[in-house]
Amino acid sequence: MNEHSRREFLQAAAAAAALGGAIALLTRRGGPVQGAEDGPLPAGLQGTDEFGDPFTPYALATGYNNFYELGWGKADPARNAHLLRRLIRETEPWTVTVEGEVARPGTVDVRGLTRRFGEEERTYRLRCVEAWSMVLPWTGFPLSRLLEAAEPLPGARWVQFVSVHAPDALPGQRSRTLEWPYVEGLRLDEAMHPLTFLASGLHGEALPAQNGAPLRLLVPWKYGFKSAKSLTHVVLTRERPPTTWSAAAGREYGFYANVNPEVHHPRWSQASERRLDGGRGGGERRPTLLFNGYGEAVAGLYRGMDLRQNY
Ligand SMILES: Nc1nc2c(c(=O)[nH]1)N[C@H]1C(S)=C(S)[C@@H](COP(=O)(O)O)O[C@H]1N2
Ligand SMILES: [Mo]
What is the pLDDT of residue 282? Predict the structure, then answer.
């Protein structure tokens, strides 16, 4: 959606709210959206995941990123983060619109999220399809809260996530290496799963721009590309929505993208991964865990499904 149609949609949503038709999700209270500014790097939190493995340090979590809107190199997102910070400032208020197959479509001002949906801390492993991984402490709330507020209709079967679209501000979107905006998707039951999370904080700080400020998805049992950053739209649909990476290279990146040590990328093995924990040697190799170690909670979602076919 371009800026013009986005503005039109906001106006239409405001009009509908005034008529009492749409849910009054649009909030005007709360402070400005935070985003780490230049200055001394925060120390971040110390801790471990449930297996006892330490958090990836703040500097690594915010200095080694995939965020192609801000460039293709691992250091580019940090280097270009100021461009997204400026966009966030100028966009104020940044909103997320929930629409499609819902009884109560609406637009949420991200500043009001905590008051409306609460705030929890979650330590999740993030496993990139490129076979590196991190352990990170996030703050946010389960996506199900936002979806429930919108009241999915019986026809809703899938959820599409749309990242920010602003080619004037984001250098990566001026090249057509990928289709923009970045889009991702989940089955509705995956989206409603209690582990599926919307994060607005990392390491005890406001979510840095390079990690997907002001609000990003986290689906910890799937490869990292499913966890779309800097969201503007959440759309409930009847049909399975297109996703950026499966559209770009469908044989390499599937829709389900569940972490699986036995289903390999056509060009490399997924049997092991490099854990980026800030230790010496650039990361210890360790075996990949089925569903990234969350199988007890999520395996039921895929009962009877061929995980090789549905990679
Ligand atoms: N909008 C958007 N979301 C995105 C990406 C991206 O390029 N654009 N990269 C994905 C990939 S491949 C990974 S591994 C994670 C990386 O998240 P991190 O940089 O916070 O570790 O973000 C995912 N979300
Ligand atoms: Mo990734």
Answer: 78
Q: Which of 56, 58, 60, 66 to mutate to test the pocket of ligand 1 (most atoms within 8 A of CB)?
A: 66
Q: 165 CB under 6 A from ligand 1?
A: no
Ligand 2 centroid distance, CA of 224 (Å): 4
pLDDT tens for 77-136 read 999 999 999 999 999 999 999 999 999 999 999 999 999 999 999 999 999 999 999 999
Regarding pTM above 0.70, the answer is: yes
Q: Is the CB of 218 under 6 A from ligand 1?
A: no
Long-range contacts of 205-209 (CB under 8 A, 24+ apart): 205/34, 205/36, 205/42, 205/44, 205/58, 206/33, 206/34, 206/35, 206/36, 207/35, 208/35, 208/36, 208/62, 208/81, 209/35, 209/36, 209/70, 209/77, 209/81, 209/82, 209/84, 209/85, 209/88
Who surrounds ion ligand 2 at CB < 5 A?
A: 66, 128, 224-225
- What are the backbone dihedrals phi and psi of residue 92, each rounded to the nearest 5 degrees, phi first? -30, 120
What ligand 1 atom has the least distance to the C-alpha of 134? 21
In the prediction, which pLDDT does 26 show?
Answer: 41
Which among 255, 190, 217 has a CA at the least distance from the CA of 126? 217
C-alpha 246: how far from chain center: 16
CA–chain centroid gap for 23, Å, is 24
Token pair for 62:
């915010």
For the segment 179-195, the average pLDDT, to the nearest whole number, is 98
- For 91, the enclosing helix (H) or strand (E) is helix 81-91
From the CA of 181, give the closest atom in ligand 1: 1
Question: What does the alpha-carbon distance between residue 55 and residue 116 come to, in Å, rounded to a whole number?
Answer: 29
Nearest to 199 by CA among 208, 187, 207, 188: 207
- The count of residues in the chain is 311
Look at the block and give the residue holding tokens 């995939």: 66
Span from the CA of 160 to the centroid of ligand 2 (angstroms): 18
